[in-house]
Amino acid sequence: MAAAVLLWAFALHSALAQTSAAQPTGTQTADAQAPVKEAQRPHVAHSHAPATLTQDEGLTVIAAALDSRVHASRRIDCSHLVHAIYDEAGFRYPYASSSDLYQGTDEFRRVKHPQPGDLVVWSGHVGIVVNPAQRAFFSTLSHGPGIDTYDAEYWKDRGPVRFYRYIKKKQRAGEIKPE
Questions:
Q1: Digits of tens for pLDDT over the chain (179 positions)?
Q2: Domain count, the chain
Q3: E strands, 64-132, where?
Q4: Which domain, by its residues, includes 166?
């Protein structure tokens, strides 16, 4: 299953890269190219919400998770493993236990719909979402680091699950500079 999830992650990464690199084809209609008058423009609310990891950056976290160098040297618990993976991917935060992460920290924003690279957290356990469609996550399991599904009966028995997305350092609440 791990190989299939890894292949899915890289296929998603390639698809995202192709989509973001796509350029207009020149087949737009004249209406689509016409200038929009100020009154016709939809109101865009300027959000002061902090910037979080993009899907592409989430795939960077997954790549670090699946890199055996991060976790091969010694057996570590789930929260230390997740911390090491985020650090390896270049997304640093002060270490927090799974219980602290479950309660919420300034480095992560709670989300309803996870994307690859987000945290999946129970009170007492944490992992990294690999494939939300398959509900797959990476963490320290009973046999060591591996992939499981967060809707498995074992995980359901641990209680309610929460998802968190990393907040980029320059945008964290305590670090936003006034304008």
A1: 444 444 444 444 443 333 333 333 333 333 334 444 444 444 444 456 779 999 999 999 999 988 866 665 567 899 999 999 999 999 999 999 999 999 999 999 999 999 999 999 999 999 999 999 999 999 999 888 999 999 999 999 999 999 999 999 765 555 544 44
A2: 1
A3: 108-111, 119-122, 125-131
A4: 51-171
